[in-house]
Amino acid sequence: MDLTGDKPSAPRSSPVYVHNPHLDSLKDDVLYHFSLGTRTHNLPAMFGDVKFVCVGGSPWRIKSFTEYIAAELAIEEPNSGYANICAGTDRYTMYKVGPVLSVSHGMGIPSIAIMLHELIKLLHHAHCTDVTVIRIGTSGGIGLEPGTVVVTKQSVDATFLPRLEQVILGKTVVRNTDLDQGLAEELLQCSKELSQFETVIGNTMCTLDFYEGQARLDGALCSYTEKDKQDYLIKAKEAGVCNIEMESSVFAAMCKLSGLRGKKTQHEYLIKKYSNPFEFLTSLFLFGKRLLFV
Ligand SMILES: O=P(O)(O)O[C@H]1O[C@H](CO)[C@@H](O)[C@H]1O
Ligand SMILES: O=c1cc[nH]c(=O)[nH]1
Predict the structure, then answer these.
(1) Signal peptide location in the record (predicted)?
(2) Cβ atoms of 177 and 249 closer than 8 Å
């Protein structure tokens, strides 16, 4: 309710927050790894209508997702050769179709963290509101049938704790890694209605490495036995871990701090194509198997 009267207040739109007072004094905020900037590009004109951001490790997956979602939204002819907005750099790729921005992030926490800093600033400078970000990635399941989709509830570290530790100015800062529960439930509901993929909600373990960090036996270095590996994976399962990947903790922490969460959107494209944005999430679900949504 409106605090000043008894009329119901209109739903407020949620901006994308940056928590950096130094940005205000920059004449030009350069998004180095996107090859974009506030002086060189009209970010509100280019990105102001973005409501969904879909991210994933591989540039190829992001291009293919863009073609898929363009056909789903019937915005442009599929396979018409979408332009990579970040063509001025070979660090990340970015495509936009209507309200959906898709960005690749490479492998691991440092790579996705750099991308997220620039993405959050981009959405902030573009004055975007009510943005939902979804990571579409691969992961290794623990005790799940191959092909199962895991919707992450919470990202945990390699000791199964829901936290991201980062050293800033020589001090360890701990950040929360909860994800939006409403969005997770919506995605699960989409999957139930589709009935095409086995889908679970659970915790995702985020590791610093693909080999030793994930108890694999096929890296160049390995100092443990098959039994040690199995014991660790059993402990992970007992702690509620469903799958393992390498970006979810910083993804969760940075989205939470920036106000990027699962929210309903009223964007015109989505209304035109779908009776509600929930159906957009269902379309997302149809994009391939063995994906990780966080
Ligand atoms: O499928 P993507 O998004 O690349 O993510 C997963 O795949 C990579 C490892 O092969 C890691 O980055 C992991 O998180
Ligand atoms: O990090 C990852 C990604 C995919 N598959 C795995 O086993 N681990």
Answers:
(1) none
(2) yes
Ligand nearest to C-alpha 233 = 2
- Asked whether residue 4 is marked as a ligand-binding residue, the answer is no
Q: Classify the complex by whether its ipTM is higher than 0.85, answering yes or no.
A: yes
Instruction: State how far Cα 75 lies from the chain centre.
Output: 23
Between vectors from CA 229 to CA 226 and to CA 234, what angle results, nearest 5°? Answer: 125
- Residue 138 CA, ligand 2 centroid: distance in Å: 6
Task: Determine the distance separating the centroid of ligand 1 and the alpha carbon of 57, expressed in angstroms.
Answer: 6
Question: Could you tell me the residue ranges of all domains in the chain?
Answer: 21-293
Distance between CA atoms of 161 and 158, rounded to whole angstroms? 7
Q: Is residue 157 a contact partner of residue 203, using CB atoms and an 8 Å limit?
A: no
Indicate whether residue 245 lines ligand 2 (CB < 6 A): yes
CATH superfamily to which 21-293 belongs: Nucleoside phosphorylase domain (3.40.50.1580)
- Asked if 206 and 155 touch (Cβ cutoff 8 Å), the reply is yes
Asked whether the beta carbons of 147 and 289 are under 8 A apart, the reply is yes
Alpha-carbon distance of 291 to 199, in angstroms, equals 10
pLDDT for 118-142, tens place per residue?
A: 999 999 999 999 899 999 999 999 9
CA atoms lying within 13 Å on the CB side of residue 258? 28
Q: What is the pTM of this model?
A: 0.89
248 lines ligand 2 (CB under 6 A): no
